[in-house]
């Protein structure tokens, strides 16, 4: 005789475990060593990416291998040594990104089926290694988190390219999600504002103005449709509103240009020179496009651009740290990850 159990009273004999979910934080990358050989390996991988240098033709290959990779690694290695984390024998970018992953893992520790790891687009630990590690831990779903607030093809898109290349080699692929850019995210703007206000309160001087410096990009990339410049402008407009500032007290500039092509303007270094010559004596610089301090913030801004400013008449210069693994910075990453994991956890 068959018995019927009402649906509302039926209970499973054992609840199946939730599928494991991997979260992979991904930043740009760094050399493994602060010497010419280490920098050469890193630059070759970075500058051979068609998302970074779009024209990978014969002329570029000759310039890259015949000129750049012969001379630039020595000079860049000297810059890396200025900021190197000697205790861990690694760049600050690695130290900070690891800490961001560790702190995120602690924040999500009440969800035992979530696994957090980190990777670099160029260099080590690679995206391949990160995905392999998550799969080895049983992750059937992976959330890739490019740590770039503003989208660009040369940052966010190339991360996706590499993630897809890794998955293309797998027969049993995990389900994939990728976090979107967060250039106007309320938590991000608030974290930037808190970071700026906290830093300014610690200074022995009051800046005449603040410069917000973003990594540059060839203008031709934007002309072809890259939204990066618009994202940077949107970030600064939101930050100005939050801080009660305007375009004369919070300036937008672009740094790190490379080669002879026109890049997004105004250039950070030229702005430093102009401001000093125009009588600005005290300045602070924030770098909202970087989720973690790295060569471009710790050496190019805090040292090189500080020298440019002071050489031309400026007196006091302060570089505001990136959000890094600070409490406001982790609030941004945590809120972004939890939002994109909805339905999975």
Question: How would you summarize the topology of this molecule?
Answer:
Blueprint: E1 20-30, H1 36-47, H2 58-83, H3 92-107, E2 114-123, H4 127-136, E3 139-146, H5 153-168, E4 175-178, H6 186-202, E5 209-215, H7 219-223, H8 228-243, E6 250-255, H9 268-277, E7 282-286, H10 295-311, E8 316-319, H11 327-340
Parallel strand pairs: 1-2, 1-3, 3-4, 5-6, 5-7, 7-8
Helix pairs in contact: 1-2, 6-8, 6-11, 9-10
Briefly note the structural class of the backbone: alpha/beta
H-E string: EHHHEHEHEHEHHEHEHEH
Any idea what the radius of gyration is?
Answer: 23 Å
Give the fraction of residues assigned to helices.
Answer: 40-55%
Instruction: Give a count of the beta strands, DSSP E runs of length 2 or more.
Output: 8
Average pLDDT confidence is 95
Task: Tell me the span between the first and last alpha carbons.
Answer: 41 Å
Q: What is the number of helices? A: 11
Q: Strand content of the residues, in percent?
A: 15-25%
Low-confidence sequence ranges: 1-16
Please list the strands of the largest sheet in the order they lie side by side.
2-1-3-4
């Amino acid at each position: 005789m068959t018995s019927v159990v009402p649906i509302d009273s039926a209970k499973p004999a054992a609840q199946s475990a939730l599928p494991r979910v991997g979260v992979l934080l991904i930043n740009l990358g760094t050399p493994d060593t602060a010497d010419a050989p280490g920098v050469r390996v890193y630059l070759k991988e970075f500058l051979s990416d068609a998302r970074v240098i779009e024209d990978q033709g014969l002329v570029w290959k000759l310039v890259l291998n015949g000129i750049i990779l012969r001379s630039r690694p020595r000079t860049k290695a000297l810059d890396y040594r200025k900021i190197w984390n000697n205790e861990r024998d690694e760049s600050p970018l690695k130290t900070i990104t690891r800490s961001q992953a560790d702190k995120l893992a602690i924040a999500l520790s009440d969800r035992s089926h979530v696994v957090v790891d980190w990777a670099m687009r160029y260099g080590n630990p690679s995206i391949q290694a990160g995905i392999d590690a998550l799969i080895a831990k049983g992750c059937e779903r992976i959330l890739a988190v490019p740590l770039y607030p503003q989208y660009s093809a040369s940052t966010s898109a190339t991360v996706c390219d590499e993630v897809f290349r890794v998955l293309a080699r797998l027969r049993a692929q995990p389900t994939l999600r990728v976090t979107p850019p967060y250039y106007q995210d309320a938590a991000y703007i608030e974290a930037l504002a808190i970071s700026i206000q906290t830093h300014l309160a610690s200074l022995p001087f009051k800046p005449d103005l603040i410069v917000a410096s973003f990594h540059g990009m060839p203008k031709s990339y934007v002309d072809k449709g890259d939204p990066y410049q618009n994202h940077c402008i949107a970030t600064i407009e939101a930050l100005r509103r939050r801080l009660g500032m305007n375009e004369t007290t919070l300036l937008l500039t672009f740094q790190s240009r490379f080669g002879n092509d026109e890049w997004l303007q105004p250039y950070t270094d030229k702005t430093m020179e102009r401001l000093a010559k125009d009588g600005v004596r005290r300045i602070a610089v924030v770098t909202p496009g970087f989720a973690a301090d790295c060569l471009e913030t710790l050496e190019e801004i805090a040292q090189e651009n500080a020298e440019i400013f002071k050489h031309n008449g400026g007196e006091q210069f302060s570089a505001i740290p990136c959000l890094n693994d600070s409490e406001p910075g982790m609030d941004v990453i945590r809120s972004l990850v939890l939002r994109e994991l909805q339905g999975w956890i």
